Amino acid sequence: MAQIPASSVRHSSHVLETHDLRAYYRMKYFGIDREVRAVDGISMHVRKNEIYGIAGESSCGKTTFIKAIAAAIRPPLEIVAGQVKYSFIKDGLYELPAAERSAIRWRHLSYILQGSMNVLNPVRRIHKTFEDFAFRHMHLGRAEFDLEVKRHLERLRLPAEILRAYPHELSGGMRQRVCIALATLCKPEFIVADEPTTALDVVVQKDVLAMIRETQSQFGSSMIFVTHDLAVHANVTDRLGIMYAGRLVEEGRTADVFSNPMHPYTAHLIASLPKIGDTQPRSALSGSPPNLADPPKGCRFHPRCPLAMEICRHENPALTTLAEDHRVACFAASANVQPSDHEKPVEAGTLGAV
Ligand SMILES: Nc1ncnc2c1ncn2[C@@H]1O[C@H](COP(=O)(O)OP(=O)(O)OP(=O)(O)O)[C@@H](O)[C@H]1O
Questions:
Q1: Burial bucket for residue 136 (CB in 10 Å: 0-12, 13-18, 19+)
Q2: Predicted pLDDT at 116
Q3: DSSP-derived pairing of the beta strands 190-194 and 222-226
Q4: Ligand 1 lined by 245 (C-beta under 6 Å)
Q5: Which tens digits make up the pLDDT trace of 216-270?
Q6: Would you say the ipTM is above 0.95?
Q7: How far is CA 229 from the centre of its chain?
Q8: Of all helices (H) and strands (E), which one includes residue 328?
Q9: Helix, strand or coil for residue 48?
Q10: pTM score, two decimals?
Q11: 346 — phi, psi (to 5°)?
Q12: 62 within ligand 1 shell (Cβ under 6 A)
């Protein structure tokens, strides 16, 4: 009997798995083909009840990855290889007929996006938007549906009066809360949040983040949370994936990634975070992010990497487990980790007195 490769066996506690996912923008300019390899071989999973964060600098492919896992692919973006699998779909996402793919949206897979105005129809009252998105998925009569919407708003401590408002009558923070209510009304198994608090001021941001956390744990959904803001990741996510030039370069429990970054790019990101009272100047990375239409061979970070070795110029380092639940794609980091490093004793003085 044929053996099933380990990578294609779905783990029962995984809600999302991607296997070697590649999504490219394919264009033709003046007869010349151009291909932007925005997502280039990402394999990862998100567990049940988990918030998985994705961080990385602008243009590293975060939004493209989100589009690929949320079946929001439009030309010139194409899925050129790999698979996206959800626990609530028998087959891969892209093996489903288009009609079935659209049927899982909002019911099983929903979104909280940055520009809430884009989701809320500016010429329809909020309750109409709830109807447009969720009525057909909930299989309830009109009166029961209205009651369920009101109950849901109550659970999220939102006043029922907002249902009669137009989006422009609400503040930015309130519109974003409405979007969270919209995204969670059908109690989806999976939520995609793309920069959901970027446009909000710090105080409103804090409330909206608390609401996202609370809602996710109340409904037991899993979530992918994308933002370039590492401070937000530190507060919200359980595990964190760091993207660089279309690839995942490090992944681990958020606290571990912050306390022990193993990839030189992650170490740079964390070292650049401002700290109260620290007036030391921060050094910038040399060079600029690669052009994804013509990325460097080997490790894409090597032209900017302080630890680059000869092998990094030719070979792409695989994402390798270097500590418990901690994967890194770096030849230098792999060379530095000895197996016994996993069991390092805790240094004296790092724990509080008992
Ligand atoms: N419609 C498009 N056509 C061609 N290339 C695109 C398109 N959209 C994005 N790209 C390119 O794909 C790459 C990844 O972009 P993407 O928007 O996914 O990055 P990002 O990490 O989400 O950036 P940001 O944080 O700025 O939103 C970039 O090189 C970008 O220029």
A1: exposed
A2: 61
A3: parallel
A4: no
A5: 888 889 999 999 899 999 999 999 999 999 999 999 999 999 999 999 999 999 9
A6: yes
A7: 12
A8: strand 326-328
A9: coil
A10: 0.87
A11: -70, 130
A12: yes
